[in-house]
C-alpha cells in the first residue's frame, strides 16, 4: 500500500519528441522543413519542436539521424566576415557614419569586431537589424 501511495505522488514522465536531422546540414546553412523531423526520443539539450529550428542557421555540421542540439543552431547571420559595412556612431545629437569592414560574422544584436577602413582602427560594434554596425566608442 505504501508503494501505491509513493507512485501516485511521483509525477509521470512523459517522453518528449526530439528534432532530428534527415539530411546533412552544413555550417552556415539555413535549416528547412525537409531537413528535420521529430523523433520520439528524449535527449537533454536537444530541440523539441520543429518551429524552434526551421529558419535558423546551423553553427556546426549536423548529420542525418543526429539530434539538433541547442548550441548547434542560431539566428541567421546578417554580416559575414570581411564584408563591407556601414559604421554608425550616434550620441545625443551627433551622428557619424563611416565605411568599415567586418572582422567577424554575426546576426542582429551580436557584437563583432570591425575595422574603420580610413583609419584602420579596430572597434567593437553591435549589428543592427538593417546590417549596419552601431559603434559605442
Q: Explain this structure to me?
A:
The chain is mostly beta strands and 137 residues long. The chain contains 1 helix and 9 strands; from the N terminus they run αβββββββββ. The chain has 2 domains: 14-74, Type Iii Antifreeze Protein Isoform Hplc 12; 84-135, SH3 type barrels (Roll), CATH 2.30.30.760. The protein has one helix at residues 2-9; strands spanning 18-21, 36-39, 57-58, 73-74, 84-91, 94-102, 111-116, 122-127, 133-135. The chain has a 5-stranded mixed β-barrel with strand order 5-6-7-8-9. A hairpin with a 5-residue loop joins strand 8 and strand 9 (133-135).
Notable traits:
6% helix; 137 residues; Type Iii Antifreeze Protein Isoform Hplc 12; two-stranded antiparallel ribbon; mainly beta; 2 domains; 5-stranded mixed β-barrel; elongated; SH3 type barrels
CATH topology of the largest domain: Type Iii Antifreeze Protein Isoform Hplc 12
Number-wise, the strands total: 9
* Domain unit count: 2
Shape: elongated
Amino acid at each position: 500500500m505504501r508503494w501505491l501511495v509513493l507512485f501516485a505522488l511521483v509525477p509521470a514522465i512523459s517522453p518528449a519528441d526530439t528534432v532530428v536531422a534527415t539530411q546533412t546540414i552544413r555550417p552556415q546553412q539555413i535549416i528547412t522543413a525537409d531537413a528535420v523531423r521529430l523523433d520520439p526520443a528524449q535527449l537533454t539539450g536537444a530541440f523539441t519542436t520543429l518551429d524552434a529550428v526551421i529558419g535558423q542557421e546551423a553553427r556546426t555540421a549536423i548529420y542525418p539521424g543526429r539530434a539538433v542540439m541547442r548550441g548547434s543552431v542560431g539566428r541567421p547571420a546578417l554580416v559575414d566576415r570581411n564584408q563591407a559595412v556601414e559604421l554608425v556612431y550616434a550620441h545625443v545629437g551627433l551622428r557619424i557614419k563611416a565605411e568599415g569592414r567586418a572582422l567577424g560574422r554575426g546576426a542582429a544584436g551580436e557584437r563583432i569586431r570591425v575595422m574603420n577602413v580610413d583609419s584602420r582602427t579596430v572597434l567593437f560594434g553591435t549589428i543592427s537589424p538593417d546590417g549596419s554596425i552601431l559603434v559605442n566608442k
